[in-house]
Write a structure and sequence with these properties.
Largest sheet: 7 strands, parallel
Structural class: alpha/beta
Number of helices: 17
CATH class of the largest domain: Alpha Beta
Distance between the termini: 15 Å
Mean pLDDT: 94
Helix content: 40-55%
Order of helices and strands: EHEHEHHHEHEHEHEHEHHEEHEHEHEHHH
Strand order of the largest sheet: 3-2-1-4-5-6-7
Number of domains: 2
Strand content: 5-15%
CATH superfamily of the largest domain: Glycogen Phosphorylase B
């Protein structure tokens, strides 16, 4: 049996998808990953074969920097970071407008490239990132059965009267005037309609006479795989989902090097792990506030700085690097300070670690609200929280019920790893 994994050229997308594929690899089956050149090293590290497939203009090998992107994408990335500084609604508006151009880049050309890979690999099963819209368009047009993996909050696939890009829930600390939210929803509806029109036009070129979509953002494969704990999902919303499986998490092996192991062994005080992921680490101003907040606390601190610059000096016994083995450090952490990205949230919960969440964009708002509602952490506005606010939030999480609740969720997630759930669901 051969499994084909289709992923954008972004480490944050490929890592969980590749982790799911290890269930096939360990069963002695062949795995081919179709993705771009920036993440070729990740594919090789997993021991998979690679088919070259470029699905978008940008890429991210692990830490994204605007100056390393192709012309146009660098300015788009800077525009996104500027929007996050203006707040929640400004960021969501910026991302909605960007979807007009970036989610279906060269749709017919990319779709034909996908089908060329399918013809060469001749897979028995296909797993595709839900956000790889051009790839899913190709599979739909050609009638290729596939499992569709949602790597963000489940609301990345809208159901009922939801509109893609408009969060299904908001953390208590983030709000906006009703007029601004109404205008945001209208914009998301306009983008949905334009996106669907473009999807249908490309579909008609690829497979003339195909039934048009009424909402391309709501299209999905035969099986929906949700990289998210079912315990954090509204049961009423679950009833609206198409055939699906909650994977819980797709936590990869991420061993620590000798320096990190030695740092962990040197002291038994509680560890705070801090990371804003591969994108949002560019918000060095917020990261600096976090570091100032943690300085007076009697805690050990590990910080993945990513692309952040201009950070303050920190105590010599802190572990500070652009990149850290997140899974290994979360295994020892007492609390995580995070932007609320899907990998960070699911990996923290699998380790049984509660969170202080500073959401900046997209599904991070709905995810932060879910964490808050489940009593697994606290969410703050990254543009408004002071060092005192953050310090109080870390103390409140550590001293409250969140650690016990997180340990309970972690035990459940470790009992049945997401990769095994995915393989079982796909084999029927």
């Amino acid at each position: 049996m051969t499994l084909l994994v289709i992923s954008p050229d972004y480490a944050s997308h490929l890592l969980p998808l590749a982790t799911l594929a290890t269930a096939w690899r360990d069963a002695g089956e062949s795995v081919v990953v179709a993705t771009g050149p920036a993440t070729a090293g990740i594919v090789a590290d997993f021991g998979f074969d690679r088919a070259d497939l470029v699905l978008g203009r940008g890429s991210n090998p692990g830490v994204i920097r605007a100056e390393q992107q192709p012309p146009g994408e660098d300015d788009a990335l800077r525009g996104f970071f500027d929007a996050t500084r203006r707040g929640m609604v400004a960021t969501l508006r910026y991302q909605a407008e960007a979807r007009r151009n970036d989610l279906l880049w060269d749709p017919v050309g990319r779709a034909r490239a996908v089908l060329d890979v399918v013809d060469r690999v001749r897979p028995d099963q296909v797993v595709v990132d839900h956000l790889a819209f051009s790839a899913r368009l190709a599979l739909v047009a050609a009638g290729v059965p596939h499992a569709d993996v949602v790597l963000g909050h489940p609301s990345a696939l809208p159901v009922g009267d939801e509109v893609y890009g408009y969060p299904t829930a908001w953390p208590a600390a983030l709000d906006a005037p009703e007029s601004e939210l109404d205008a945001l929803r209208r914009l998301c509806c306009e983008v949905r309609d334009a996106f669907t029109e473009e999807w249908n036009a490309a579909l008609d070129v690829l497979e003339p006479g195909s039934a048009p979509s009424t909402d391309a953002f709501a299209e999905h494969g035969e099986l929906l795989l949700l990289n998210y704990p079912a315990a954090l999902h509204d049961p009423a919303r679950t009833t609206l989902l198409p055939p699906h499986a909650f994977l819980g998490s797709a936590v990869r092996a991420d061993p620590a090097d000798d320096d990190v192991r030695n740092w962990l062994a040197a002291d038994d005080r509680p560890v705070v792990y801090v990371s804003f992921g591969s994108f949002l680490s560019a918000r060095g101003d917020v990261l600096a506030t976090v570091l100032e907040a943690l300085r007076p606390l009697d805690l050990r601190v590990a910080v993945a700085t990513g692309s952040a610059s201009g950070l303050p000096d920190v105590p010599e016994d802190w572990l500070v690097r652009p990149y850290l083995p997140q899974v290994a450090l979360l295994d020892r952490a007492a609390v995580a300070v995070t932007h609320g990205g899907n990998n960070s949230v699911t990996e923290a919960l699998t380790a049984g670690v509660p969170m202080v969440v500073l959401p900046f964009s997209t599904d991070q708002f709905a995810g932060a609200a879910a964490i808050e509602a489940a009593g697994l952490g606290v969410a703050l506005d990254p543009n408004a929280a002071t060092s005192s606010d953050l310090r109080a939030a870390v103390r409140a999480v550590l001293d409250g019920p969140a650690p016990g609740r997180a340990r309970g969720v972690g035990e459940e997630l470790r009992h049945e790893p997401g990769r095994d759930v995915a393989r079982s669901a796909m084999l029927g």
